[in-house]
Amino acid sequence: DVKVTQSSRYLVKRTGEKVFLECVQDMDHENMFWYRQDPGLGLRLIYFSYDVKMKEKGDIPEGYSVSREKKERFSLILESASTNQTSMYLCASSPGTGVPSEAFFGQGTRLTVV
Amino acid sequence: DAKTTQPNSMESNEEEPVHLPCNHSTISGTDYIHWYRQLPSQGPEYVIHGLTSNVNNRMASLAIAEDRKSSTLILHRATLRDAAVYYCILRLWAANFGNEKLTFGTGTRLTIIP
Lengths: 114, 114
Prior knowledge:
Strand order of the largest sheet of chain B: 1-9-8-3-4
Structural class of chain B: mainly beta
Number of strands of chain B: 9
Largest sheet of chain A: 7 strands, mixed
Oligomer: heterodimer
Radius of gyration of chain B: 14 Å
Strand content of chain B: over 45%
Number of strands of chain A: 11
Shape of chain B: globular
Structural class of chain A: mainly beta
Order of helices and strands of chain B: EEEEEEEEE
Strand content of chain A: over 45%
Distance between the termini of chain B: 38 Å
Number of helices of chain A: 0
Helix content of chain A: under 10%
Helix content of chain B: under 10%
């Protein structure tokens, strides 16, 4: 069974903390994605990566950074968490064949910043 | 990036067919049409995709207009478990290996009436 695993389902952090959200996939996929989902706004792409150490900004990268040191792991970093980063965060991966193919999603991490 | 337009919400009766429309008037020749759905409290899951021809799989059918400026996802016999948000997405086939952005809109919330 293919799998994208996010390290936590629920997380509560304080304003100003550095927060790491981890995502691991076991399908040897080249592409990995981080999204946030807020009511009425749908899924918005924060960052994506198409190879180890490669990253590209999505639509809302401000306040976030990412790290991809190994093919299977893609980390989202909130350098200094703020209350407006309270959201559901979703990770996804897909093969990098050039022809767009199925993407697989994790279950999500609901982050609350207090 | 080419955009898609979907109705915010739709209702359908259980065990009847459902036709979910999507407009993508600025689609380019190398954009694939993908559909995902998101069940409550879960990450999105892939439903179907196509380029020019109609496509069928065990979950649904995808009907693509001849000019490719619109498409319709067809659920042949809706069940209560099909209640979800359905996203129509254009995915660019990129010449660069693995460089595939995956961008969602706000989707159509489908309600199934028992």
